[in-house]
Amino acid sequence: MADEKRREHLIEGPAGLIELIIDEPSCPPKGIVLVSHPQPLLGGSPHHLVPLTLARKLNAEGWRVVRPSFRGVGKSTGAHDEGIGESEDSIIVVNHLQHLYPQLPIALVGFSFGAHVYARVACALNNRLHAVALLGLPVGLVPGGRLYEPLALPAECLLLHGEQDEMAPLANLFDWARPERRTVVVFPGSNHFFKGCLAQVAQHVATHLDHAF
Hints:
The protein is α/β, with parallel strands linked by helices. It is built from 5 helices and 10 strands; from the N terminus they run E-E-E-H-E-H-E-H-E-E-E-E-H-E-H. It has helices at 49-60, 84-100, 113-125, 170-177, 198-211; strands at residues 6-13, 16-23, 32-35, 64-68, 106-111, 131-135, 140-141, 147-148, 158-162, 185-187.
């Protein structure tokens, strides 16, 4: 991904500035994808390997990719708000992008804590989104003592998970998904970060977004 195609943009949010890292494709964009990052309290940022890999793949596939920094990360101001404020900020970002580019569809790709944030956004903005993919979605009580509220996600959300996810246990997700027979795409032997199959995961996400047209 060429550096000259990457730019940073700051917008105003409820807690101050929100940093956006924007990667432009080499062709006219087919749409806009927001890609979120893992838990800031554990060092997560838009530069983490998983969101970076997703961004590179989706950008190569012709998407304008936007990676926001959650509160307190990079140039974004404010303090960590357990997903609540981050969801409010993400809705501000979607509104901003839809105002600037009303002709382009917008999709969400969330990972880890960022998957929880985008799950909240998907519940609020379902009819305004082109597609949603959530990777390593934490549900319920996870190691480290954090509790993630189960959400009534739109049925068309793509859920991808590592079989041996040590940070967002697959069993928790299955307990949530079982009553409604929700589909979960599981990568056998993979951990929370999809080690050894991240390229496959990125391709699966890209294919899902294209099929949503």
